[in-house]
Design a protein that fits this description.
Keywords: Hydrolase, Membrane, Protease, Transmembrane, Transmembrane helix
Subcellular location: Cell membrane; Membrane
Order of helices and strands: HEEEEEEEHEHEHEEE
Number of helices: 4
Number of domains: 1
Low-confidence stretches: none
CATH topology: Umud Fragment, subunit A
Shape: elongated
Mean pLDDT: 87
Strand content: 25-35%
Membrane topology: Single-pass type II membrane protein
Number of strands: 12
EC number: 3.4.21.89
Structural class: alpha+beta
Radius of gyration: 21 Å
InterPro entries: LexA/Signal_pep-like_sf, Pept_S26A_signal_pept_1, Pept_S26A_signal_pept_1_CS, Pept_S26A_signal_pept_1_Lys-AS, Pept_S26A_signal_pept_1_Ser-AS, Peptidase_S26
CATH architecture: Ribbon
CATH superfamily: Umud Fragment, subunit A
CATH class: Mainly Beta
């Protein structure tokens, strides 16, 4: 009888530890998300399932999930970091006066024949500020013509960022890792 109670107690402890670890991992380290919409096409597709890394600080060109003003979570690409001056001219991104390549847009740019993928603008045109404020980032969707991003909702406070997404795990045919 004592042996059975001991075995039940061991199973119960193992179950409590497993549930505790699952909670810590899910709420503090990683979380699954489902892409909802077309704003990150062609990089991400509606229905893609990803893992969001909740620790660390986002870097330029990382794909991040954040709490948007509309009480929804958005997924976009970090274009500008605190202190950056952002400008688009002739479909080319300039950060602090230096031109940057955006290879993730190359395929999309080839398919667009009726003007630029990204219209000309400066950060000041949309935010009224010359540089991205401290503690905030400027984000854009890869589907520049169909994305509600910092051009519409302003810069995003770092405190609103859930984490960055580096892995598509479903559907299997689209599985890939990002920088």
């Amino acid at each position: 009888m004592a042996g059975e109670k001991s075995e039940i107690r061991e199973w119960f402890k193992a179950l409590v530890i497993a549930v505790g670890l699952a909670i810590v991992i899910r709420y503090f380290l990683f979380a699954p998300i489902v892409v909802d919409g077309l704003s990150m096409m062609p990089t991400l597709h509606n229905g893609d399932r990803m893992i969001v890394n909740k620790f660390g600080k986002p870097d330029r060109f990382d794909i991040v999930v954040f709490h948007a003003p509309e009480q929804k979570d958005y997924i976009k690409r970090v274009i500008g970091l605190p202190g950056d001056k952002i400008q688009y001219k002739n479909d080319i991104l300039y950060i602090n006066g230096k031109a940057y390549k955006e290879p993730y847009l190359d395929q999309y740019k080839k398919n667009v024949g009726d003007g630029p993928l990204t219209e000309d603008f400066t950060l000041k045109d949309y935010t009224g500020k010359d540089t991205v404020p401290e503690g905030e980032v400027f984000v854009m969707g890869d589907n520049r013509r169909g994305s509600k991003d910092s051009r519409h909702i302003g810069t995003i406070p770092m405190s609103k960022i859930v984490g960055d997404a580096h892995i598509i795990y479903w559907p299997m045919k689209d599985m890939k890792f990002f920088k």
